[in-house]
Amino acid sequence: MSLHLSTVILPYRRWQEGGRAPWERAEQLGFHTAYTYDHLSWRSFRDDPWFGAVPTLTAAAGVTERMRLGTLVTSPNFRHPVTLAKELISLDDLSGGRFTLGIGAGGTGFDATALGQEPWTPKERADRFGEFVPLLDRLLTEDSVSYEGNYYSAHEARNIPGCVQRPRLPFAVAATGPRGLRLAARHGQAWVTTGDPKLFENGTPEQSVRAIREQAERLADACAELGRDVTGLDKILLTGFTPDRQRPLESLNAFVDFAGRHQEIGFTEIVIHWPIPDTDFAADEKVFQQIAMEAVAQLG
Question: Which of 61, 131, 179, 195 could lock 95 by a disulfide, CB 3.0 to 4.6 Å apart?
Fold first, then answer.
């Protein structure tokens, strides 16, 4: 099974002051996809510069030609399916059909309260996600959509001419729970995981691999319930949030070993963070570039 290597570029620098360069360099290095986070602010960057995902990806589309682009991940926290669909169709057009939507249920961070609302409970997040994804699917595949749900509505929402990619741009659905996995099985062209967050602080890499394998097995069960072959669903691992943390980026051999263990589970794409000095994503840039250029060939 072939493996793609992708990167995620955080939008923390002004475009003309270094923000543009990683996107151009990522394409030169041969990354399959360059993603960015879709947040209003994020963790330790909250009081530092942080730019919007959609404008950033629009600019990236203009300075790249072959590499795919995407979000990891967009969520309902501050998005509405009707307005989001229009932006996604525009991004897909501007990129020449190179856009992938990573989408998740959202969390309890800054995005959850930035619009003045109380954080949603886990049940409400799941309920909203269960409406958000199917409605967005319709908005991206139908010329006109009307819908009345518990959380989201659309009234004759027009999305002409639709996506360049047909029937719509691909969804990469981030999920670990049963409802999210069912959404991935029904609507996703890919599934995304960061591993088991409960293992991040005190777990071991071996425990993490077992937990991720169990997640993949539950995804297979969700696909089987719908009569779908799970092998037709790409499986994406966003690194940096397992007990391994940044250790896989310490050397080419370390990364090949890490990626190989997850490739055996069935992962088709591994995503690594573009190095950011003095943060949790610090890494040696020479090693990072060596991994980008040589790792996939070693993994076969």
Answer: 61
d(CA 99, CA 172): 11
Amino acid code (one letter) for 173: V
Specify the DSSP class assigned to residue 170. Answer: P
Its sign, for the CA torsion 78, 130, 126, 182, is: negative
Nearest C-alpha neighbor of 98 from the set 64, 137, 49, 53 = 64
Query: pLDDT at residue 296 above 90?
Result: yes
State pLDDT tens for residues 211-220.
Answer: 999 999 999 9
Mean pLDDT of the chain: 97
d(CA 54, CA 60): 10
User: In the block, which residue shows the tokens 């730019």?
Assistant: 51
State which amino acid sits at residue 276: I
Give me 109's structure tokens.
Answer: 């961070």
Query: Does 35 have pLDDT greater than 80?
Result: yes
> In the predicted model, what is the mean pLDDT of residues 118-130?
96
Q: Cα(258)–Cα(3) distance, rounded to whole angstroms? A: 13
pLDDT at 2: 87
pTM of the model: 0.97
Contacts of 108 (CB under 8 A, 6+ apart): 119
At 99, which helix (H) or strand (E)?
Answer: strand 99-103
Q: Is the peptide bond before 73 cis (omega within 30 degrees of 0)?
A: yes
Contacts of 277 (CB under 8 A, 6+ apart): none
Residue 137: CB partners within 8 Å, gap ≥ 6? 168, 171, 187
Task: Determine whether 193 is exposed, middle or buried from the number of CB atoms within 10 Å of its CB (0-12, 13-18, 19+).
Answer: buried
Spatial CA neighbour of 128 closest among 151, 147, 154: 151
Closest CA to 33 of 85, 77, 68: 68
What confidence tens digit (pLDDT) does each residue in 159-199 have? 999 999 999 999 999 999 999 999 999 999 999 999 999 99
